[in-house]
Amino acid sequence: MKGPYASPGARRVKPAGKPSKRALQALLDGERFIRPWGFQVESLRNGSCTIRLPFRRTLERPGGIVNGPALMAAADCAMWLAIKAHLGMERDALTSELNTTFLSPAIREAVLCTARILKHGRRRIYGVAECHSRTGKLYSHHTVTYVPIEAA
Amino acid sequence: MKGPYASPGARRVKPAGKPSKRALQALLDGERFIRPWGFQVESLRNGSCTIRLPFRRTLERPGGIVNGPALMAAADCAMWLAIKAHLGMERDALTSELNTTFLSPAIREAVLCTARILKHGRRRIYGVAECHSRTGKLYSHHTVTYVPIEAA
Amino acid sequence: MKGPYASPGARRVKPAGKPSKRALQALLDGERFIRPWGFQVESLRNGSCTIRLPFRRTLERPGGIVNGPALMAAADCAMWLAIKAHLGMERDALTSELNTTFLSPAIREAVLCTARILKHGRRRIYGVAECHSRTGKLYSHHTVTYVPIEAA
Amino acid sequence: MKGPYASPGARRVKPAGKPSKRALQALLDGERFIRPWGFQVESLRNGSCTIRLPFRRTLERPGGIVNGPALMAAADCAMWLAIKAHLGMERDALTSELNTTFLSPAIREAVLCTARILKHGRRRIYGVAECHSRTGKLYSHHTVTYVPIEAA
């Protein structure tokens, strides 16, 4: 990350292992199966991450409703990023459970998804994710469990 | 099904409202957001439906693992078809809850998903779906709740 | 509730149908199957309710851990009261789904359970419940769906 | 299982570590918090266990409905016994997740609960449990995850 001429005291924007928003966006963009959704990292906070699913005609179910699997993918990705932000880029985790309740349809609009870690254990990372509008209307609610991958 | 004196043009392949495998495949193919997964209807039984997710490089996570959202989409679609087969094409239902547990990774291979209705109520249709290999190895287990849409 | 000689301006502690903490406690105490847990109503807020499960030796699993079914019963009851507080005493609802994740053991101590309604629809009431200590340590996390019973 | 020279009185009903129905019943009866439900072990099969919740007036909700926490406790216990039968008495596991969907009320009647292990991993044991009548009517459906406790 450090450029070739960085002086010894050059600023280290983040402590080692705490990835930036840009690094997380690059992670999403690097996964071929995620790219079609076009998720954008919106914000990062301690143990929490918000991404945005832009509206596209290809996401629509009849009636202009954003399809359910797209919201579940958003929940999965938002939690993944919240965990990467917490663990650091060099460590990873796999989804173990993802429970979804659909509450209201999102109709022809961008959807935000905010994931928040509630418990970070050695064997399990658990949190909630919510798909919502910019004004806070709730579209879906998720609980997500990830299992850390042991360092090789 | 055909009576003994049925005239040549009288074939009724299915009783009204019980869609054929071909009709369900057309339903899947007609939904733009489902098409990228390329699901194929494999078999239909009373209250149960199996679809196939062909393996594609674009489904891979690192390690060749079929991505989780694809399995959740398969569970959602397989249950949708099981319900359409049960209710008839003219009636529809929306996903209300979908709980997923990932059990083993599917690695560079086609995945079958079998959904089965356990309870068909007036206000709720509940069932389980399993993603599995042709030989019965279990990749993920899902419970799915759909809510029938009232006839307009 | 108003006595026979109440003057015109007599205080009406609650608007009709918004039950008091005492009324909700009486509701709990009136249900024979709930009584053994000894739940106490702690606080009520808009769409939210906290109850307390006092520690008793009869709740212990080996190791002094408060047993899991007691936490699930707490989640179910706390959400029920949050809904009664919202709908009014004369209307009722039945549990339809209850998902639980156990996060940390509660060991020989009282447990608080706070339920909060996230979505109140005509056909479904959805919320989360958390069992926690007085200092905020999380023991279990639950999502709960209730279905309103139609007025007869 | 009996060796060739086993004397008549030497029967070893079960291989070491595979507990009998009687041993599992004693386990249930030994847990103070479980005793009030009066669960009876009905049958054991490979990876599966059925218990019975006898009807008692103290289980009733208004309308004679068997209360939901009792069905969740049954699911938790039936899966616990299925796991003990599989792992052997000397090893144990703790409930990590328990998802419940209530499907039909059980009204003033005994309830059977059958749990079945679907996946037995090193870090997680996953299965389904169903509360049902003797004739197969389904009252509730559960998915249950247990985590094995490492040998000390």
Helix content of chain A: 10-25%
Chains forming the largest contact: A-B, 26 and 26 residues
Strand content of chain A: 25-35%
**SSE string of chain A, helix = H, strand = E?**
HEEHEEEE
> What does the radius of gyration of chain A come to?
16 Å
Query: How are the strands ordered across the major sheet of chain A?
Result: 1-2-4-5-6-3
Supply the number of structural domains of chain A: 1
Which oligomeric form is depicted? homotetramer
* CATH fold category name of chain A: Thiol Ester Dehydrase, Chain A
Question: Which second-level CATH architecture of chain A applies?
Answer: Roll
Distance between the termini of chain A: 23 Å
Uncertain runs of chain A with pLDDT below 50, 5 residues or more?
1-15
SS class of chain A = alpha+beta
CATH homologous superfamily of chain A, by name? Answer: Hotdog Thioesterase
Q: Report the CATH C-level class of chain A.
A: Alpha Beta
**Average pLDDT of chain A:** 88
Structure explained in plain terms:
4 copies of one chain form a homotetramer. By secondary structure, chain A is an alpha+beta fold. Chain A has one domain (21-149): Hotdog Thioesterase (Thiol Ester Dehydrase, Chain A). Chain A is built from 2 helices and 6 strands, in the order αββαββββ. The first copy, chain A, has helices spanning 21-30, 68-87; strands at 40-45, 48-53, 93-102, 111-120, 125-132, 138-148. In chain A, a hairpin with a 4-residue loop joins strand 4 (111-120) and strand 5 (125-132). The two termini of chain A are 23 Å apart. At the A-B interface, helix 2 and strand 3 of A face strand 3, helix 2 and strand 5 of B.
